[in-house]
Design goal:
Layout (H helix, E strand, L loop, with lengths): L1 H6 L18 H4 L7 H9 L3 H13 L3 H9 L4 H29 L3 H6 L13 H10 L4 H29 L9
Helix pairs in contact: 4-6, 5-6, 6-9, 8-9
């Protein structure tokens, strides 16, 4: 990435050498500029977006063509067909990907461990809760504390997932009419 930025005449940031946690977008407004180490982790995690895209593509292929034809006969343009046919039929997949993405984001460990050499370096700017559980358990040997943090993470994920399931009745379309 720095090579591309340099070839465009811009100076590349020190992605994992910066002690700034997440300079973007606030860094641009307060004059700091540049990216922080957590921004680099976000960009790095975009590599795994392909899994979600395959699920979206499978769901798009499952939308009945007859619905598009009926909407077109009723005078719906492309935007209206997307809004009233495609999007409602994709909401179960959007819901699934949202739940899975939330759980994956809270439990992010491998990328952080690799880029920070297992320490959350530099200066704790890449330290996340999952890495902190690992460090508390296996570096500081505080198993009870690590267990308490892990249980807190579990409760956080359960509450967030429960909230998503509760809200899904208002925005997830189910063609069978059943409630989630």
């Amino acid at each position: 990435m720095n090579y591309l930025l340099t070839s465009a005449g811009l100076s590349g940031p020190g992605w994992f050498n910066s002690t700034a946690e997440a300079a973007w977008p606030l860094g641009w407004f307060n004059g700091a500029g540049g990216f922080g180490s957590k921004d680099a982790l976000v960009l790095m995690s975009l590599w795994g977006v392909g899994n979600f895209m395959i699920i979206y593509l499978a769901a798009l292929g499952d939308v009945p063509v007859q619905l598009y034809e009926a909407a077109e006969l009723d005078g719906a343009g492309p935007l209206r067909r997307f809004w009233h046919v495609t999007l409602p039929l994709l909401t179960p997949v959007i819901f699934f990907n949202l739940v899975m993405g939330l759980i994956h984001a809270v439990q992010a460990f491998t990328q952080v461990y690799i880029v920070s050499e297992g320490q959350g370096a530099p200066a704790g700017s890449t330290l996340m809760l999952s890495l902190y559980v690992f460090l508390a358990a296996f570096k500081y040997l505080e198993m009870g504390y690590a267990s308490a943090i892990a249980w807190s993470m579990f409760v956080l994920i359960v509450l967030a997932t429960w909230g998503l399931f509760r809200s899904s009745r208002y925005w997830v379309f189910d063609p069978s009419g059943a409630r989630l």
